[in-house]
Fold:
Amino acid sequence: MYPGFNIPLDTTNVNVDKLGKVEIFQPGSIDAVELGNIPIFTFINPAGLRAMGGDLYTSTRASGEAMENIAGDNNAGEVMQGALEFSNVNIMTEMTDLIRAQRAYEMNSKVMQVADQMMQTVNGIVR
Structure:
């Protein structure tokens, strides 16, 4: 199910294109040697995958079995060599939301203090 590539020790460069084709370059040769393709696996219900930790997931009954695709086909996505995956969190938005929540908490805390003082005053007048 997983591709296995044997990359010789004398390889000078490895190239992976957006369709998952793996090519290597060796000393003394100007032509690339194609090793194969990296498959992309998709699931009927990706939300049903079970997290194993360390960015690893396993299939479950809810996710269905893994379907092997060729990169770029059937909305399977593409391979990007040398790219890092970014989080979908915008740090500036999150910090702004955190400050806004903190200010709302402080304001509600002050309202509760004033309400408590008013109740103490009312209790003092009634007695």
About this structure: Residues 1-84 form one domain. The chain has two domains: 1-84, 86-127. The longest strand covers residues 21-25.
